[in-house]
Amino acid sequence: MLGTLGDEWTLLILQQATLGATRYGDFAARLPISHAVLTRRLASMTDSGLLEKRIYQENPPRAEYVLTPRGRGLWPVLMSIWEWERHWVPAHAEGLPAMHHATCGCAFAPVLSCRGCGAAATEKDVAAQWGPSGSWARSIPAQSTRRRSASGRGAAGAGLFPETMSILGNRWAFALLVSAFVGTSRFGDFADQLGAPPGSLADRLQIFTGIGVLAAADGRYRLTEKGRATFPILITALQWAQHTFRSPDGLAVDLQHTACGATFEAELTCDQCTGVLRGTEVDVR
């Protein structure tokens, strides 16, 4: 999942595809992206099964790029990122407009909820343990994604979702944040659990404290309110990954909703009408 999504341009192209862009010119007009980068990302996203390339004109040849079921399944992740950046990153490069729910007509915020009982869920309500195919070692990509600067923003990135990419754009960052959610707080415990090089771990901790996701005190690094608010991003990304990259051994992570005792399957609901959200029912303006 991190190898597929740990790139800002990929997320932005997915966002625009979800909003209706299909042709090369659509993406080029909507994003501050070079032609070389756009061409490479469209090719890699087609190879990874997020987009399907369809020829709509033979002479001269013209193609469109349509979301596959795998690509469409990422809308909860994109919506969670959008809401977190809109709410928690006041210095965002461009103001993000509100999302409107077509069913009730209201501007809304998505609420992470339990599909089994319908109740809203936070990190305090969900218990996680490794499944048959899960471990820290197996959950970290063998190679790092694009190196980030100390601010968490890559020199070649769009800079539109800089703080989100400080989480998704590095193989150690996502794992470190998950580790913080399950109670790890000391440098040595992070290092032992993740197997991360000390320099990489120190760099990620510095970035997370710098953007206010973690707070350092008494030799510990603890999640702030802003950090806890990333929970919907982590859960929707994990859920997409477990549905998309299935292991014959079983799930990597087992989640349980402690409030109802059922296996936790996440869904997003509207905070205004409480209805279940669907990607086709959300308007951004």
From TrEMBL:
It comes from the Bacteria. The keyword DNA-binding applies. InterPro entries: ArsR-like_HTH (IPR011991), HTH_HxlR (IPR002577), WH-like_DNA-bd_sf (IPR036388), WH_DNA-bd_sf (IPR036390). Gene3D superfamilies: Winged helix-like DNA-binding domain superfamily/Winged helix DNA-binding domain. PROSITE patterns: HTH_HXLR (PS51118). Residues 131-155 are annotated as: Disordered. PANTHER family: TRANSCRIPTIONAL REGULATOR, MARR FAMILY, TRANSCRIPTIONAL REGULATORY PROTEIN. This is Winged helix-turn-helix transcriptional regulator. It comes from Mycolicibacterium arenosum.
